[in-house]
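Suppose you are handed only these lines of text.
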Amino acid sequence: MAARTIAELDLQGRRVFIRVDFDVSYTPAGGVSDATRIRATLPTIAHAIERGARVVLAAHVGRPKGRSKPELSLLPVAAYLAEALGRDVFLTDEPAGDGAKKVVNDLRDGCVAMLENLRFSPGEEANDETFARALASYADVYANEAFRTAHHAHASTAGMVKYVASKGMGFLMDREVKMLGKVVGEVERPFVAVIGGSQVTEKIGLLESLLGRADTICLGGAMANTFLAAQGASLGRSLVEAGKLPIARAFLAKAETSGVRIVLPRDLAVAEEATSETSTIVAAARVPDDQAAFDIGPESVAELGALLSRARTVFWNGPMGVFESPAFAAGTLGTAKAIALVIGGTTVVGGADTATAVERAGVRSTLTHVSAGGDAALAFVAGKKLPGLAALET
Ligand code: ADP
Ligand code: MG
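From them, the structure of the protein bound to adenosine-5'-diphosphate can be written out as follows.
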């Protein structure tokens, strides 16, 4: 039931529809402010061009909510791409319609068209049948290169695919699936998962699925506060999801019966505000009433380091603290460095903010994989079936 890659598909002279992730932001002057996502898809696009495909690119930018918004046009992206590829990129006036149909029909082999922002149409996010069929009418071959939206069943990621005979993954998508797959199936043990960040609600599914696979789960960040509170610790003014205490207790009980070790922070860096420039280290159970925890403390980092040094497989999502502020970055940067020291093992990182933290710690190149997949990566590691991937199965 595996999906093929674009390298295995016959592209010559065919209209190859590639769903790409070009969700970038624009500078006030109307340029692309960070082109990393665009550049990452160049190998797939170049491959299609070289094989003589008539390339039809489809993407979204921002949240136009089903309405045409000139400031969210893909025009700056098309201009950037034309420059990067050294050839014309013909942008359509609408994501689907007579104009788009004409541009696609007029394409010659090796040429590139780009549909206007898919989310200008309400049919995209609603996975509307008519819109899906319109998109499919521009495609002889379908390739998905937008892993970051693969957890959504939208017209361009799921609905249209059943109407296209030949389908597969772009190179980026393939790499994400292979690399994230390293922490989903059979893993080399010990498998240590480190989960932080700010939302218990969003990540409880991930935590529960890890109970079935990980040997040790280390919790940090605001996430850990809720679990500490569930054990009766005083957290002062720390961010605690009070409504989630029962879920946290149930999770801790389940971990105990499944024999999975849960490691909570021993000490915390506290201050009055997240904007404070200094912090105090306190025992995890004793945050003063007028203070809040914004990072894990040095003893906790040392314990994490010791656990990680014995790990053969590591998955990390969620910063250990408010790492955006230098006063509360030590726990997160220390964790990143400890993971980078897992030599010869498999180290996989997911989550948008966590990827930024890894970059800041300067350890990206020493890790097995840092996913660019955001929430889609977390859903994948939680063992969920992503609609965008399921649609590609043959
Ligand atoms: P990711 O994007 O990697 O999945 P999250 O979005 O879940 O990560 O969490 C990142 C955010 O969590 C960061 O903005 C960070 O400031 C915040 N955070 C981490 N620890 C704390 C804490 N103790 N208190 C408040 N916010 C926190
Ligand atoms: Mg985030």
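What can we learn from it? Residues 245-258 form the longest helix (14 residues). The pocket of magnesium ion (ligand 2) is lined by residues 352-353 (CB under 6 Å).
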